[in-house]
Design a protein that fits this description.
Radius of gyration: 18 Å
Bound molecules: flavin mononucleotide
Helix content: 25-40%
Number of domains: 1
Oligomer: single chain
Strand content: 15-25%
CATH topology: TIM Barrel
Shape: globular
Number of helices: 10
């Protein structure tokens, strides 16, 4: 028997498979398809202080081996998440969930974490994943994740608001991701997750205009897997806190490769949009694939 368990910032999870933020909603929709308690955990949709409708459409464009998205952090806002979404999730998910938090200012990140942490639903939350890497919004998101000083400021601000583990989600749209990871570690982050999407664009040949209303979007899916692996490898060597590998993972073999690069756990994004059972299938396949490669445990 292989042992798929991993320790993620002091919390043991049954396996390292975690659906990524923005590709799994608030979880309960997927619970209509299968028992989501088979997952290690999942990261819920990036949540901001106020409700957001996101960007204009079209905001998704398919590409060979992946997709571009410019959703722009559509979410009902933190109060509604506490009042409506988390109670629905509580009925179907009995493990700690990862709360993905987004913002347009350091104060916003801190306030969202504060409201979640002091809410009646706080016990459901195992980790905060702080998204400082969204490429699809203006005046926030990625601007924090491309500057070590600003990234550190966000860590400092949210660190005051919670004793739970803080995982900083980093952008690949930088020259040296290790510098930003180290700045987060120094300021007290408990973990790093990466990568968010890579900035890209496409044109409509008939109109000569960009396919996405937002002009640019974030590339994800199998196309980004080697880039993600390289950045996870570099980051895991640069810091002493756990690293969650994200980017193009769509099979149990991909999970093993991420673990070999130094990941402690792995998030699965676009694959959930191609096949809603993708994360469940990876969990199902993982023990046999570990056995095949002579891996007893992580
Ligand atoms: C439609 C869509 C929405 C996303 N929304 C968020 C979000 O709200 N917060 C976040 O941190 N990442 C978000 N992401 C990024 C993913 O969590 C993940 O980091 C990225 O897609 C790379 O993984 P993948 O190649 O497996 O998709 C989103 C990705 C997609 C495709």
């Amino acid at each position: 028997m292989v042992d798929t368990r991993v320790d993620l910032c002091g919390i043991t999870i049954d396996n390292p498979v975690i659906p990524a933020s923005g590709t799994f909603g608030y979880g309960y929709e997927f619970a209509e398809l299968y028992d989501i308690n088979c997952l290690g955990t999942f990261s819920f949709k990036g949540t901001t202080l106020d409700p957001r409708f996101g960007n204009d459409t079209p905001r998704i464009a398919e590409c060979p081996s992946g997709m571009l998205n410019a959703v722009g952090l559509q979410n009902p806002g933190v109060n509604d998440v506490i009042r409506e979404e988390l109670p629905k999730l509580e009925r179907v998910f009995h493990k700690p969930v990862m709360a993905n938090v987004s913002g347009f200012s350091t104060d916003e990140y801190a306030e969202v974490v504060k409201r979640l942490d002091r809410s009646a639903m706080s016990d459901m939350i195992g980790w905060y994943e702080i998204n400082i890497s969204c490429p699809n919004v203006h005046g926030g998101g990625m601007s924090f994740g491309t500057d070590p000083k600003m990234a550190a400021e966000v860590v400092k601000a949210v660190r005051w608001m919670t004793d739970k583990p803080i995982i900083m989600k980093l952008s690949p749209n930088v020259t040296d991701v290790t510098e930003i990871a180290r700045a987060c570690e120094t300021e007290g982050a408990d973990g790093i997750s990466l990568i968010n999407t890579l900035m890209g664009m496409r044109f409509d040949l008939r109109t000569g205009k960009p396919l996405l209303a937002n002009v640019t979007g974030g590339l994800s899916g199998p196309a980004v897997f080697p880039v993600a692996l390289r950045m996870v490898y570099q980051t895991a060597k640069a810091v002493n806190i756990p690293v969650i590998g994200i980017g193009g993972v769509s099979s149990a073999e991909d999970v093993l490769e991420m673990m070999m690069a130094g990941a402690t756990a792995v998030e699965v994004g676009a694959a959930n949009l191609v096949d809603p059972y993708a994360s469940r299938n990876i969990v199902r396949d993982l023990p046999a694939v570990m056995k095949k490669y002579g891996i007893d445990s992580f």
